[in-house]
Amino acid sequence: MVNSTKNDKRITLAWSGASGAPYGIRLLECLLAADYEVYLLISSAARVVLATEHGLKLPSGPDAAKEALTKHLTVSTDKLNVCGKEDWFSPVASGSAAPKQMVVCPCSAGSLAAIAHGMSDNLAERAADVVLKERGQLLLVVRETPFSTLHLENMLKLSKMGVTIMPAAPGFYHQPQTIEDLVDFMVARILDHLGVEQGLVPRWGYDQRP
Ligand SMILES: Cc1cc2nc3c(=O)[nH]c(=O)nc-3n(C[C@H](O)[C@H](O)[C@H](O)COP(=O)(O)O)c2cc1C
């Protein structure tokens, strides 16, 4: 991509309406703390999930949403760009300017289907389509249970195109004591795949032996 270099610290993060809002919030905090410029896309359903699961009511306008996030998060939001759902002039909407990495976290079955079929009906879908066509890194933290054949087919289709399908399925071998520990398990794996340094969870090794 034209505006991206190998060490480009710019990333697109989409929150869709799957359960798992705490994953999205924690991932955003970690990316900002790692000094990434984050383009944040929030679906209407994601706002409902955020209010339901996290008690965070985000206003619909991008500026007001950024203000609310600035109050809520524990890190600086100087490098946070909240984008409107149809902000087609956002850098993420074009291969000439988009970050080469994108994460959808959490990713609903609906967003999964739209991305698998190149719908590009809103900015998040378009941004994913751009990353696919530019052969960047796309990571979907899909959350649904059980998966239907349709979900599985959509995931397989994207996986064959190089997309990382990372179901929101935390492990228990690090003996989590709190919900935050479970959230950190998933976020640590996501950050690893993105190449972002993290020390959220002890790494697998001999120390884990009972
Ligand atoms: C509280 C809540 C939890 C939901 N959990 C899930 C879920 O885990 N997985 C999923 O695929 N959809 C879930 N949904 C339904 C999606 O939000 C819905 O299908 C929506 O249209 C997805 O749109 P989006 O992908 O544009 O955000 C949930 C909805 C709500 C309100």
Automatic annotation (TrEMBL):
FMN binds at G17, A18, S19, S43, S108, A109, G110, S111, R143. It catalyses: dimethylallyl phosphate + FMNH2 = prenylated FMNH2 + phosphate. Dimethylallyl phosphate binds at Y173, R189. The keyword Flavoprotein applies. Pfam families: Flavoprotein. Its EC number is 2.5.1.129. The keyword Phosphoprotein does not apply. The lineage of its organism: Bacteria, Pseudomonadati, Pseudomonadota, Gammaproteobacteria, Vibrionales. Keywords: Flavoprotein, FMN, Prenyltransferase, Transferase. SUPFAM superfamilies: Homo-oligomeric flavin-containing Cys decarboxylases, HFCD (SSF52507). Belongs to the UbiX/PAD1 family. This is Flavin prenyltransferase UbiX. Residues 9-194 form the Flavoprotein domain. Flavin prenyltransferase that catalyzes the synthesis of the prenylated FMN cofactor (prenyl-FMN) for 4-hydroxy-3-polyprenylbenzoic acid decarboxylase UbiD. The prenyltransferase is metal-independent and links a dimethylallyl moiety from dimethylallyl monophosphate (DMAP) to the flavin N5 and C6 atoms of FMN. It comes from the Bacteria. It comes from Enterovibrio norvegicus.
